Amino acid sequence: MIKFVYPGSFDPLTKGHVDIIERGAKLADRLIVGILMNATKQPMFTLEERIEIIQAGISHLSNVDIIPFDGLLVDFLKQQEARTVVRGLRAVSDFEYELQMAQANRNLYPEMETIFLCTNVEYSFISSTVVKDILRHGGDISHLVPEESIHIIEKILGGKENGSGSTDGN
Ligand code: ADP
Fold first, then answer.
1. Distance between CA atoms of 143 and 91, rounded to whole angstroms?
2. Which CATH code for domain 3-161?
3. Pocket residue to mutate for ligand 1, from 86, 127, 130, 133, most atoms within 8 A of Cβ
4. CA of residue 73 relative to chain centroid, distance
């Protein structure tokens, strides 16, 4: 059974992420979206919110699981009995960091491999950071985030504005 792990912050999920998930899921029997809990930056969306947004955006895929993790990616891989990590590459600017991470991980766990899927050119400018910047200023994110996830994001942010949610808003 070929199992891929696609790790990331997904704060929030974008159409670029979904493209990588769909393509990765075609290459593997099972793809695990690993949501990093201990992101160094304070996320805009809580873990539960990020999961809800992803669930909505990938409900059309049957061989994808969403599993949060903390700590080292290599420990998560071992725990999931997976040896392959998938990452997306948007531009040369992503490459240096990704190469360093892939090498550091393989140094810790030589049996693993990282495979890179090049972004669909249509999504190459999309990042969670861009989505968050637009959200902070009340702009339209419909071209950046899967349609099924938008109403969840609106519901979450609406709740926060009314003071019922987390207030970090970073
Ligand atoms: P991280 O904080 O680990 O970089 P992200 O959620 O920002 O987490 O990204 C997770 C992965 O998705 C990374 O490999 C990143 O390069 C990739 N990715 C992000 N946006 C896109 C996009 N628009 N197209 C393709 N891959 C992307």
1. 20
2. 3.40.50.620
3. 127
4. 14
Single pTM value for the model: 0.92
* Burial status of residue 16 (CB atoms within 10 A of its CB: 0-12, 13-18, 19 or more): buried
- Report domain extents, the chain: 3-161
Which residue's CA is minimally distant from atom 22 of ligand 1?
Answer: 16
Percent of the chain beyond pLDDT 70?
Answer: 94
Which residues are identified as catalytic? 17, 41, 90, 128
Neighbours of 30 (CB within 10 A): 16
Residue bearing the CA closest to ligand 1, atom 27: 88
The model's pLDDT over 126-143, given as tens digits with 9 standing for 90+, comes to 999 999 999 999 999 999
* C-beta 16 within 6 A of ligand 1: yes
> What is the distance between the alpha carbons of residues 135 and 129, in angstroms, rounded to a whole number?
10
Asked if 8 contacts 35 with a C-beta cutoff of 8 angstroms, the reply is: yes
